[in-house]
Amino acid sequence: xxxxxxxxxxxxxxxxxxxxxxxxxxxxxxRFDEIVTRVEVHITDENGNKSTPNDKKCVxxxxxxxxxxxxxxxxxxxxxxxxxxxxxxxxRVLDTTVEKIKEH
Length: 104
Known about the structure:
The chain has one domain (2-103): Double Stranded RNA Binding Domain. Helix content is 38%, strand content 31%. It has helices at 14-28, 79-103, and strands spanning 2-7, 36-45, 56-64, 70-76. It has a 4-stranded mixed beta sheet with strand order 1-2-3-4. Helix 1 (14-28) links the parallel strand 1 (2-7) and strand 2 (36-45). It comes from Flavobacterium cheniae. This is Sigma 54 modulation/S30EA-like ribosomal protein. InterPro entries: RHF-like, RHF/RaiA.
C-alpha cells in the first residue's frame, strides 16, 4: 500500500509529520492491504493563519482495487485530531466495502 501525505502551506508538515501519519495509516489499515493500493491524505487549514474552531481539514482517499476511490473528510481544531477522525471514518467505510465484496 502506497501512502502519500499532502499538506497546504499553512500546515507545518515536515518529514516527521509525514512519517508518523504514514506509520499510523499502515498500522491501522494493514488488514486492507489486499484491496487498497494507495492512500492519499490531504491536510489543510481552511482559513489560513486565523485560529478558529474546526478549521483544520483532513481528507483521506483510499484507492480500492476494481472499485471507485473512497474518500472521507474530517474537521477539527488540530491537524492531528482531524487526521485521526478521518482515519476512523475510512476504517468504517473500508470495513463496509470488504463486507460487500464478500457478499458477492
